[in-house]
């Protein structure tokens, strides 16, 4: 995709009171043989330095596609961005040339992927892969790059970093591999770090360690972090605010403590109720009935209406806008008041 | 690694014995009398025939004959003598070099052209270039070597020489160094180029879909570096296996190509050996081919460990 507007790289310090990252009515669709898959349908959110935004949603809700659109790593085609803006320090990334985009990618906005085993290249040593960031982007020599790699591996607390520099990804445990992924992502002190389900492939104790590490790194560097997850348990400790996605839209966004206190969208409520709880041990686990929407054939009106216990007639016909509940909170439900009041259905 | 190599070499012994015995038995079972063939139409002195038959152990049973041959080969490195009394090793010495040259030229052409075409097709996947390359490889696969051989000999060897007035591609013999091998090398490599092109394309397309390629892009690397360093390095692994196994196939396939271009290699010699029922020649050549196969496969497996760190032999 070639853009003709002048290439102005986003200013280092940012402009005025523009947020660090702002998504504005972002749409992403995929052209497939079966038709157009509308994966993201008008997503807007903002992120400031030092802030952690958790993007929550089940598979196919569009949360990863949104992240890939920010990174600019969608395969286009089949993907298309027909509408929307991704402003990074005031500059719309979608209007930049591919070269300018490459300058932002990895250096200023970095990303961590879900499965570090497949996300790391199996034929290069971890030292080589981390130091590549310094060799390519900072023009460092191999030796200096490797020294930097050791520093980073120490920073993400990989034991005996120097000895493990020349090991390959498959020689590490899952948790250590994810640490390497993190080291690579934070190598050039990015301003935004996107973590796409960073702990999904790990066991529970390791999950906690990785989340702790991410939170700590963020505090040190004051970067903005987008944490994509489907695990509400992971979110509570680290996130400042939450955006819940369903069917390619944001259905609720709120500060983290507000949402745990009282959800304002039936879907969020369902998610919260489906977390296993010790005090309800022995009882059947709650599950949201029905299936996620078919992105090729979205239901009319509110995408959640076929599964919603609060459904009324107008939910089937009218798409709910993002109602403003307070300055920091929105819900895309016609009946958010009833949901918020804890009116149980 | 050292232990692994030794184990592989020991495993090669039964393969070699089995292959030679098999060929020995087949030539043994061929109709006709090799001693009678020596004299052509003339009548032979029964006494001389008896001496030759005795000298070459032709009256012994198959297994004993095989033992005479294989013990000479294993303990003295002796490939035996032809019925005309020429040592087979001496007969094959220069010819093996010709065939090896031909196979290596073909292998290099295959690797270079196949990988480049495959790469090009993969990067233009779904577009006209890709379709064009795939269609022409299909053509190359379906036309037999005999046809491509004679057609290219006529077009590039004869007609091109008439048009330009200089001989760019010699059409026969191995007297002009590398130049003599270009045309036969290409003809021999033809189908292999086609297969390797398709294999490269598939392998690279598959690799470029991997998660680590997405990671490399997310690192802010240029597309050239993502494909050239991160993609190609991984896509090469299956190609090495194919190339290694193909060296043996190319040496075997040299029989036809050497005949078309009149190259004095072992392919030509093998044909004559079978025709004259010269057991020592046929078995000798097959033994060498089997050895080349075994060595090529061993080298491939070693390279595999170098290219893919996940594979370790211990």
Automatic annotation (TrEMBL), chain A:
CDD domains the record matches: ABC_NikE_OppD_transporters (cd03257)
Any Pfam family: ABC_tran
Sorted UniProt keywords: ATP-binding, Cell membrane, Membrane, Nucleotide-binding, Transport
Report the principal subcellular site: membrane
Domain ABC transporter residues, every copy = 21-272
Q: Which biological process annotations from GO are given for this protein? A: peptide transport
The molecular function terms of the Gene Ontology recorded here are:
ATP binding; ATP hydrolysis activity
What PROSITE patterns does UniProt report for this protein, alphabetically? ABC_TRANSPORTER_1, ABC_TRANSPORTER_2
- Entry membrane topology: Peripheral membrane protein
Where in or outside the cell it occurs: the entry states:
Cell membrane
**Keyword hit for Transport:** yes
> What is a single cellular component term in the Gene Ontology annotation?
plasma membrane
Q: Which family does it belong to?
A: Belongs to the ABC transporter superfamily.
* Name the UniProt record assigns to this protein: ABC transporter ATP-binding protein
Species of origin reads: Nonomuraea cavernae
TrEMBL record, chain B:
Q: Where in the cell is it found?
A: Cell membrane
Q: Where are the transmembrane segments?
A: 12-30, 98-121, 133-160, 180-199, 239-261, 281-307
What Pfam families does the record point to? Answer: BPD_transp_1, BPD_transp_1_N
Question: One Gene Ontology cellular component annotation?
Answer: plasma membrane
The family database entries (InterPro entries) matched by this protein are listed as: BPD_transp_1_N, MetI-like, MetI-like_sf
Q: Does the keyword Cell membrane apply?
A: yes
Q: According to Swiss-Prot or TrEMBL, what is its membrane topology?
A: Multi-pass membrane protein
Q: Name one GO biological process term.
A: transmembrane transport
- Stretches assigned to the ABC transmembrane type-1 domain: 96-304
Q: Which keywords fit this entry according to its UniProt record? A: Cell membrane, Membrane, Transmembrane, Transmembrane helix, Transport
**What's this protein's family per the entry?**
Belongs to the binding-protein-dependent transport system permease family.
What name appears for this protein in its UniProt entry? Peptide ABC transporter
Q: What gene is this protein translated from?
A: dppB
């Amino acid at each position: 995709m070639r853009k003709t507007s002048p290439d102005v790289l986003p200013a280092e310090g940012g402009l005025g009171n523009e947020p660090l990252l702002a998504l504005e009515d972002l749409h992403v669709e995929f052209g497939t043989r079966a038709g157009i898959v509308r994966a993201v349908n008008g997503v807007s959110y903002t992120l400031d330095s030092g802030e952690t935004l958790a993007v929550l949603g089940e598979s196919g809700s569009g949360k990863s596609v949104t992240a890939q659109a920010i990174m600019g790593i969608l395969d286009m085609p089949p993907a298309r961005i027909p509408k929307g803006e991704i402003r990074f320090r005031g500059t719309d990334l979608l209007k930049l040339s591919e070269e300018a985009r490459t300058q932002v990618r990895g250096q200023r906005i970095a990303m961590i992927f879900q499965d570090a085993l497949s996300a790391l290249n199996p034929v290069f040593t971890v030292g080589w892969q981390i130091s590549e960031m310094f060799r390519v982007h900072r023009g460092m020599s191999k030796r200096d790059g490797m020294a930097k790699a050791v520093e980073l591996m120490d920073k993400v607390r990989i034991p005996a970093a120097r000895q493990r520099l020349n090991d390959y990804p498959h020689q590490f445990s899952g948790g250590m591999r994810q640490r390497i992924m993190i080291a690579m992502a934070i190598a050039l002190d990015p301003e935004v770090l996107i973590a796409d389900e960073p702990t999904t492939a790990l066991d529970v104790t390791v999950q906690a360690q990785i989340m702790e590490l991410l939170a700590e790194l963020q505090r040190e560097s004051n970067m903005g972090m987008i944490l994509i997850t489907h695990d509400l348990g992971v979110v509570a400790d680290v996130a400042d605010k939450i955006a819940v996605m369903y069917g390619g839209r944001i259905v609720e966004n709120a500060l983290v403590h507000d949402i745990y206190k009282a959800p304002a969208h039936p879907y969020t409520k369902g998610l919260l109720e489906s977390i296993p709880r010790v005090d309800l041990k022995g009882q059947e686990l709650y599950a949201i009935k029905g299936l996620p929407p078919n992105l090729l054939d979205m239901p009319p009106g509110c995408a959640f209406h076929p599964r919603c216990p609060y459904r009324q007639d107008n939910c089937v016909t009218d798409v709910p806008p993002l109602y403003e509940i307070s300055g920091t909170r929105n819900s895309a439900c016609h009946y958010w008041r009833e949901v918020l009041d804890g009116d149980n259905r | 690694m050292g232990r692994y190599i030794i184990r592989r070499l020991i495993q090669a012994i039964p393969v070699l014995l089995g292959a030679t015995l098999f060929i020995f038995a087949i030539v043994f079972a061929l109709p006709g009398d090799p001693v009678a063939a020596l004299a052509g139409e003339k009548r032979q002195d029964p006494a001389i025939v008896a001496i030759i038959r005795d000298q070459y152990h032709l009256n012994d049973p198959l297994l004993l004959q095989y033992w005479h041959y294989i013990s000479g080969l294993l303990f003295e490195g002796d490939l035996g003598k032809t019925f005309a009394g020429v040592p087979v090793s001496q007969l094959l010495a220069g010819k093996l070099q010709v065939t090896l040259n031909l196979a290596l030229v073909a292998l290099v052409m295959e690797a270079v052209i196949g990988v480049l075409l495959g790469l090009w097709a993969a990067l233009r996947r779904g577009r006209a270039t890709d379709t064009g390359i795939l269609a022409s490889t299909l053509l190359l696969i379906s036309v037999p070597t005999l046809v491509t051989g004679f057609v290219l000999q006529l077009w590039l060897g004869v007609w091109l020489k008439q048009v330009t007035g200089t001989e760019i591609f010699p059409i026969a013999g191995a007297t002009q160094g590398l130049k003599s091998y270009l045309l036969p090398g290409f003809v021999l490599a033809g189908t292999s180029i086609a297969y390797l092109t398709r294999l490269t394309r598939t392998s690279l397309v598959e690799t470029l879909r991997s998660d680590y390629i997405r990671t490399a892009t997310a690192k802010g690397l240029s597309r050239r570096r993502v494909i050239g360093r991160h993609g190609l390095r991984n896509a090469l692994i299956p190609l090495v296996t194919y190339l290694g196994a193909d060296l043996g196939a190319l040496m075997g396939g040299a029989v036809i190509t050497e005949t078309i271009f009149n190259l004095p290699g072992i392919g030509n010699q093998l044909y004559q050996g079978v025709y004259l029922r010269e057991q020592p020649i046929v078995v000798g050549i097959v033994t060498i081919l089997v050895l080349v196969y075994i060595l090529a496969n061993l080298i491939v497996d070693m390279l595999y460990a170098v290219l893919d760190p996940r594979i370790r032999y211990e």
